[in-house]
Amino acid sequence: MLRVPRKSVMPSFLGLVAAVILVATACQPNATATEPAQTPSTQAITTSFNPPTPPVPSGPSTAVQGATLTVPQIVKAVRPSVVHIQTDATQVDFFNRPIPVGGVGTGEIIDAKGNILTNNHVVEGARKIIVGLADGRTLQASLVGQDPSTDLAVIKIDADNLTPIAIGHSADLEVGESIVAIGHALDLPGGPTVTSGLVSALDRSIDTSDTVTIQHLIQTDAPINPGNSGGPLLNLRGEMVGINTAKIQAGEGISFAIAVDSAMPLVRELVAKGRIERGCLGVSLGNLTQAYASSQGIPVQQGIVVVQVVPGSPAEKAGLKRGIVIVGLAGKPIGRVADLESVLLANRKGDKVKIEYYDRSRKVAADITLGEVPTG
Fold first, then answer.
1. How far is Cα 14 from Cα 11, in angstroms, rounded to an integer?
2. Which of 105, 108, 170, 333 could lock onto 261 through a cystine, CB 3.0 to 4.6 A?
3. DSSP 3-state assignment of 273?
4. Are 305 and 323 in contact (CB under 8 A)?
């Protein structure tokens, strides 16, 4: 479970630009395709994210369509789809000696082929991934794909007689609605832990580090603990509407789940390609500060500052240079680096989009063809 700190201190850019973040610092060669890519802020996001929405992968539904279930009925229906994930990894100690470490998380079976959805932080850096099924089987899993920026990962087991979880629609949720969370909290023996609560807020975003903001989150007061990570958040029809991922470390009853409607298109891409093909600008960026805006005569208070432009990148070809402040991309306002993530997900490599920025006091609009983020 990601523990979000109550307060984070960000480094400055030359004393003026905050939170320098590498955003696709290079692009794949020949990727500019032809024209047809411990508290942080928990404010609601304002950017839109509309990825393709082909049918959600699913198997036999365990939920009763449209029927409201009791919590025991939900647990009975969903339990065969929820898995225990144990990982082995290696860290180094103070003397640079390797030491084995282990972790525990939760996942859910999303199709009959053995694909399992979980959080990226559950499996990141794992040398071995062991999955325990509700029927007692224990199998080694392989990593299909992972994406740190959205904290999503897909692993796969080779097994039959699997029960995929029923997938609902997070767009149908309402604040105040009852929900249920299932996961292997604290790795307690005897099977997963069940908790319940309310939808406290919708469409949240949280900073999990200086460089990563997870968006499209459901805030809930259902108790979530280490080991719950990757487990399902369920509506009262027994359908997964979120993937439990984080909690505010110093807060009471403040936990977050990734909304399933925004997650599943990315999950499908991880299953198909093993990665998320974001668009690439070819720059490193930092959030605009008031000090930088004042010193450069920039007439806005929100935007992202270009710290570096990679030679030969889409940004260089579009005329971007160090020190400009980007305020819009593809028709969407860009107030901070996190806003750019949604736009680059919705507009992928090869897409030609309009970029708006300030060069000191002068506002400029230009076309840019997004490149591809490198794979290695």
1. 9
2. 170
3. helix
4. yes
Residue 65's alpha-carbon distances to 168, 246, 258, in angstroms, are: 10, 29, 23
Residue 15 makes CB contacts below 8 A (sequence gap 6+) with 291
Alpha carbon distance 45, 127 (integer Å): 35
pLDDT of residue 374: 66
The answer to whether 81 and 165 are in contact (CB under 8 A) is yes
Hey, what domains does the chain have and what are their CATH numbers? Answer: 2-37+277-372 (2.30.42.10), 172-262 (2.40.10.10)
For 318, left (φ over 0), alpha (ψ -120 to 50), or beta? Answer: alpha
Residue partners of 73: CB distance under 8 A and separation at least 6: 238
pLDDT (average), residues 6-11:
36
pLDDT tens by residue, 257-281: 999 999 999 999 999 999 888 888 9
- Give yes or no for a contact between 126 and 90, defined as CB atoms under 8 angstroms apart: no
Mean pLDDT of the chain: 82
Could you give the CA distance from residue 184 to residue 190 in angstroms, rounded to a whole number?
A: 9
pLDDT at res. 339: 82
Catalytically annotated residues? 121, 151, 229
- Whether 369 shows a pLDDT value over 60: the answer reads yes
Q: DSSP letters along 105-150, please? A: EEEEE-STT-EEEE-HHHHTT-SEEEEE-TTS-EEEEEEEEEETTT
Q: Mind listing the pLDDT tens digit for each residue in 150-208?
A: 899 999 999 999 999 999 999 999 999 999 999 999 888 888 999 999 999 999 988 77
Q: By CB neighbour count within 10 A (0-12 exposed, 13-18 middle, 19+ buried), where does 104 fall? A: buried
Q: Report if pTM > 0.85.
A: no
